[in-house]
Amino acid sequence: MSSSVPSSAAVPQTTALYGGQSGRRITVRDIAAAKERGEKWPMVTAYDAMTARVFDEAGIPVLLVGDSAAMVVYGHDSTLPVSVDDLMPLTAAVVRGSSRALVVADLPFGSYQASTQQALETAVRFMKEAGAHAVKLEGGRRVLPQVEALVAAGIPVMAHLGLTPQSVNAFGGYRVQGRGQSGDELMADAKDLAAAGAFSVVLECVPADLAERVTASLPIPTIGIGAGPATDAQVLVWQDLMGLTARPAKFVKKYFNLAEEMDHAVRAFADEVTSGAFPTAEHSYR
After folding, report:
1. 99 among the known binding-site residues?
2. Which of 55, 105, 118, 171 could lock 126 by a disulfide, CB 3.0 to 4.6 Å apart?
3. 191 in a labelled binding site
């Protein structure tokens, strides 16, 4: 029996990442193809099934279950306290709530730095138990062994350079990274990560000109957050772009004032309850 498959099955049809209708999950091959076409695309965070469904149906091609959940879900003041067990159910919910987006799970602080074996065990959990399609980790050359081990095991890896929030204490705060000589080091890290097999790299809070040079130098897509307009993609935390964050970073554009709308809605509900206007017969059973 021949083991060959039709070429149409072996090579997915080209589809636009944002808003495309492929009838299947976005894959890392689609991400690579978008880079070749010069197509820009959006990525947003998601932490539950309902918002994942909204973003998925809106055509967002990549959803990140970020360790930013430590702050926007669990109320911490940094990403450091969140654990694997905290992020596992969130990742599973986002996978269940979406049908087209590539779902990327952040590996939280302390879950991959110790060794390649630790990184592999953590990533396997996210892939097997939560259904993630890829994982993200922070750092440059110091995590190259982990990236290589994960890729060798068949686990797609999204890298993260620049302001890596898990290293905020080492940086002395949330500061722009990559100015001066450190820009050359970031460029070297980016090239090494691509050579190690990462399928993309997030560039956070780096000068726009550096992000442009890194993007032009890499065969894999760059995803900017506070890195200027030249990156291949852009990512924001959904609570930031929807206006739920009280003091967002400079790089955040608020596309909607959801905090104000929620305030109006819950006050209207409370007023109708206290006045007796709700519920009416329309909202009651007989």
Report:
1. no
2. 105
3. no
Q: Give the Cα separation of 220 and 232 in Å (integer).
A: 9
Distance CA 30, CA 9 (A): 14
> Active site residue: 39, 121, 185, 204, which one?
204
Whether 171 and 140 have beta carbons less than 8 Å apart is answered as: no
Please tell us whether the domain made up of 28-255 is placed in CATH 3.20.20.60: yes
pLDDT tens-digit readout, 47-74: 999 999 999 999 999 999 999 999 999 9
Give the predicted TM-score (pTM) of the model: 0.92
Contacts of 200 (CB under 8 A, 6+ apart): 28, 31, 158, 159, 220, 221, 222, 223, 232, 233
Cβ contacts of 263 within 8 Å, gap of 6 or more? none
Separation CA 33–CA 27 (nearest Å): 10
Task: Give me 132's structure tokens.
Answer: 């993630």
Q: What stretch(es) of the chain map to CATH 3.20.20.60? A: 28-255
77 is known to lie in a ligand binding site:
no
Is 204 annotated as catalytic?
A: yes
**What angle is formed at CA 224 by the lines to CA 23 and CA 95, rounded to 5 degrees?**
35
